[in-house]
Amino acid sequence: MIVFQIVGYSDAGKTTVTAELLAALAAKNYQTATVKHHGHGKSLPDPDYNKDTWKHRQAGAEASLAVTETGYQLTAANSRAFPLEKWLEIYKLLEIDVVLIEGFKYADYPKVLLVRQTDDSKRLLTELTNVRAVLYASEESGDSIKTNFNGYAGSSFNTAGFINWFFQEYIAEGD
After folding, report:
1. Which tens digit of pLDDT belongs to each residue from 126-157?
2. What is the domain count for the chain?
3. How far is CA 94 from CA 37, 43, 106, in A?
4. Is the pTM of this model over 0.90?
5. Cβ atoms within 10 A of the Cβ of 124, count?
6. For residue 96, what is the domain's CATH number?
7. Is there a contact between 119 and 142 (Cβ–Cβ < 8 Å)?
8. Ranges for the Molybdopterin-guanine dinucleotide biosynthesis protein B (MobB) domain (predicted)?
9. Is residue 166 situated within a structural domain?
10. Buried-state track 46-75, b at ≥16 Cβ within 10 A, e below 16
11. Rounded to the nearest 5°, which phi and psi values hold at 100?
12. How far apart are CA 41 and CA 22, in angstroms?
């Protein structure tokens, strides 16, 4: 299973890049999954409010799983920390080919860093590990990154080059 992160500050374009990479992988029939860090300090909306699974959790279940012939939905209000690695174990059970992690920037998986300003890249390139690619929003940032970074560097407004690089680096030849 390939695990790759898309990281950067808020409004850097992480969700756009994630969606474009997912579409490219799906077009080649890869089984994909995502993990999104929801770091806004708010609770997630309850997708099954007032349904049986919601009632199960209200009665004390830590989690509830609804299963149909075409899919399933897990909802949980677990107050215990559940590390990223455990979610990846679940995806292994599901035989996922590629997991894209949006956020969790301090995790040590290979990642692309999206930056809006030169200061962002200077700070994050020293703080983060395993940065393999950088997508920048301004030519000023791009010039600085190309001078000081050894991995892939390209414009966040043209992700085709990044997607091609990702396939060359992480996906088996012939795909």
Report:
1. 999 999 999 998 877 788 788 878 899 999 88
2. 1
3. 20, 26, 25
4. no
5. 19
6. 3.40.50.300
7. no
8. 3-134
9. yes
10. eeeeeeebbebbeeeeeebebeeeeeeeeb
11. -105, 125
12. 26
